[in-house]
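Running this now, will post back.
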Amino acid sequence: MLVFSGGPTKQHVTFVSEGESYLALARAIYPNLPSNAPIIADKLSTDSFQNLMLPLVVFNSTALSPPVQITIVSHEFKRVRFLDQHCRALRWPSDKVNYVGIDPPKDEAGSEQTETGEAKARRDWYSDWWGRGPALGTKRIKRGWSDEFLQGLSWDGWKGDLAKWTGGPTMREDFPFRLPWDAE
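Update: finished.
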């Protein structure tokens, strides 16, 4: 299954989600993709953590089991954030993830801004594994996130609990329940 992940994080520009736009682009480039190909768009994610967590939950719900392997395609500068922070928080096994990093073309000013922004993002995610604290939670809301989105989904049990988990008082605590991909 292929999941294009990303919600409509720039609603002042468009209400089309990033996931939907990536899927539309793939279908335009590859018009012979079968209409029943297992390709879906995640239309809710507003940050990198949700870009990993929500598709894992959707895959597990659709396939009724966790994926055997995942491949994350994102910016190279986000590699550490995904592999060392987000996969760790979700207890996703490091031997079951591939990362394909592609960075935008660099220029002096933009490159420095990107590095500074990513350093701040890593610090924020290090202190708030689940993205629910003041800095990251506020950023999610500004990008259009609402926990009400979960009400329209059949996210009962562990799915809803995981999506709403705050990380406890320290914002860095493990999810307290078993996940489908946890080792036996």
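Strands lie at 2-5, 39-42, 70-74, 97-101. More later if anyone needs it.
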